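Hi R.,

Here's the chain you asked about this morning:
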Amino acid sequence: MDLWRFEVIWKKISWLCYRYILVTALYMLKPWVRTIFNSILISVAGMAHIMAILHYFEMVQ
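And the predicted structure, written out as tokens:
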């Protein structure tokens, strides 16, 4: 039962990664450029998340 569940979860994650690569057209980039793009994207998303939290606490005060 556990192995089957792991396979289902793994297939879902693989499908989401595949869609991300296709939608962002990352399949056309070299691996090192893809790494830079993903790093910048994660950094911007992380900073936006932190700013949203700080803005929330500023509004609560």
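The helical segments are 2-23, 31-60.

Let me know if you need anything else.
M.
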